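Please produce the structure of this protein holding adenosine-5'-diphosphate.
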Amino acid sequence: MSEDSVYQQLRANLAYLRLHAAAEVLPGELEHAAAHKLGHSAFLKRLLDAEVAATEVRRRESLERFARLPAPWRVEDFDFDAQPAIDKAMVHELATLRFLEDATNVLFIGPPGVGKTMLAVALGRASIEAGYRTYYTTAADLAARCHRAALEGRWATTMRFFAGPRLLIVDEVGYLPLAQEAAAALFQVISQRYLKGSVCLTTNLGVGSWGKIFNDDPTVAAAMLDRLLHRSVVFNINGESYRMRQHRARSERLRPRGRRHDEPEDTT
Ligand code: ADP
Ligand code: MG
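Below is the modeled complex.
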């Protein structure tokens, strides 16, 4: 076989095996190997490195699409000084993702605007980047999806779907009370992931008020909390809303000579 037809055959084989990145860099790598007198292994390694890198990028993009994170937030973007109630070291520990290994849950509890979604999404981003299947949903979306699934006879499939990701983020639990069916769906999702896969959950309700989410059914609330909290890291964030804080700081800058509202009134 002539060298030319070996080359053509090689390209055809790479295409057949769908090693498109390797096929693309092949001419350049052959030249590089000749110019640098590379051995067979070194050449082959470089060729396959290109394919592995391309596969990695595709995999990351697919995880990214699947996860449906609502924003590109990262842990580095979080202003910890603004929220001293949050244990920064603990957040950084979570960002190493060791918590996924023993299916530890993470709960962010606090009023609106304190960064609960931001931190949950930042953990989600870290998890995607580490190559873990990650999925973001709000409690309301989860409920709506399960409702549709029940109507269409796909309940079991949907439950398997929510069992699948290595990290499941359930945002905004407690903003709206859940109808009985929705509460049952959330309960089943949490139960089937118990000790198997981490849940990162955000809520505006302290755990003592969780009965309210479940139509004042304290038994479901207690059973769910039992599973969630058994192995968990809980952040109680009771600081001020970040946007309110920024808004206040801005208006105070705009009123340099004005009296700040937290200063005592001058009564003289
Ligand atoms: P929550 O989910 O607690 O209601 P969010 O995470 O949605 O709050 O935060 C509200 C907005 O404020 C977002 O735009 C978020 O990026 C920003 N934000 C909140 N806390 C911080 C923080 N500590 N550092 C930087 N941005 C923050
Ligand atoms: Mg939120």
